[in-house]
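Below is how a single chain appears once it has passed through the pipeline. First comes the sequence as given, then the structure the pipeline wrote out for it. We keep one example in the README because the format questions we get most often are answered faster by looking than by reading.
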Amino acid sequence: MLASALLLSATGLGAAPAAATPAADDTTVTTGYGQVRGTAGERADDYLGIPYAAPPVGGLRWKPPAAPARWTGVRDATASGNPCMQTGSSTPWGDLAGPGTPSEDCLYLNVHTPAQRSLRDRPVMVWIHGGGFTIGSGTFYDGGELAARGDVVVVTLNYRLGAFGYLAHPDLAGESADGISGNYGLLDQQAALRWVRQNIAAFGGDPGNVTVFGESAGGGSVCQHLVSPRATGLFDRAIAQSGCGFPLPTHESQQRTGATWAGSLGCADVACLRGKTAGELLTASTNPTARWVPNVDGRHVPLQIAEALESGRFHRVPVLQGTTADEGLLTVASTYDLAGRQLTPAGYPVAVRALYGERADAILARYPLSDHGSPAEALGAILTDSQFACLQSRTARLMAGHTRSYQYEFADRGAVDYLDLPVSFPIGAPHGSEIRYVFGGVSGTPAQNALAAKMLGYWTNFAHTGIPYAADAPRWTQYPKVQVLAPEAITASTTFPEDHMCDLWLPSAVTARH
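Resulting structure:
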């Protein structure tokens, strides 16, 4: 169930800085590795499938990303690169892999710039997609409208997923000068951020004003970069949507898991694993005992996120973060109604006991069915509060002691009505429902359209200045106030922890057993 909720859920690359002057053709740009030619649009220009690292294949499988090869001539940048290796995903939004065929050769990024030229370099927003660290792609998200309306340069990227991105193994640690393994997907993201620093000026972007933002696993990645010493100087602001504060496994436990997983493939060492085809590894990676996520390796992720924030050991940049009002309802819908069954009143306590064990009685006492419209909504509230709202409330609070910290709750309870999902309960504002409001993809009621315009303004003006503001929108006050983003009105809440029963879930931040 947690995996379903997460669906919606390095080394320096030593290239010379890109030339700041584009070629005579307006869609041809010179990067530090060669020229690329994109597509000119009415509102935005798109440069797709640009390699930011070498293909991580053969001997580079489970290695930190290496610099891409330079090329001669003009590289076609009108089609996206392949998504990274993953199984097909069925979500209400479609297959999150996007176009192309999943491949190990997948370390590509896309650049979207406003069609209107500017005499000043524009702020840069680098998007890290979600998908539980196992599915998704940068190309699934079209950054053109966000770029045009927000007057920013938008970069979306792929990074290694699943076993290809997060396998930890003693042999891999033995190959590392730092004695660590795993976190290759995280290193990919940092390599892309280095590419941005070195090359984005050629696209009209300001390398000195970079905002990294992401949702679900992407939001979690943002917070991992916030605490990573290896990300120093790579970004200037951060936005974490529905993902900051997830507890991570230790390096030691991930290495044990990795060794066990390798054994299931008949491999006693990494040389054997590198001899397997990508398809064989992908099939084996769906083993439910494997957990493909970043680990606390002491170097790239030195501490648990909350521990690092509490001690002030993170990059002191302005941070905007938050959750949706009904994060857990998508998980409930996927587990029950969309799977052909319904959660009954009798099944509700059974589900809670299966998830939370000996704590179930205390949880059920705080979430009685009488307080909710249906058993599904009650279970959704538990998942929302325990897995998302309270963890993110804690990270916002911890950051506020050291930097500008802004928190939101997205509360358009009709945000996914347009999908017409066959569910027996109102699904509200579930996990991932805010993304299209940020990217400029809403065509709803007048109130929804107005909310979307204000949210796009908040996000992009935060990228411009480090302060979220928007035309005709209420002032956004720093934590502890929480900006509630609803089509009826945008308001500031001072009761978010109480509304989400955070005294029950924090400080232990109990998570469901899985």
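The CA atoms of residues 183 and 384 lie 27 Å apart.

See the next section for the split statistics.
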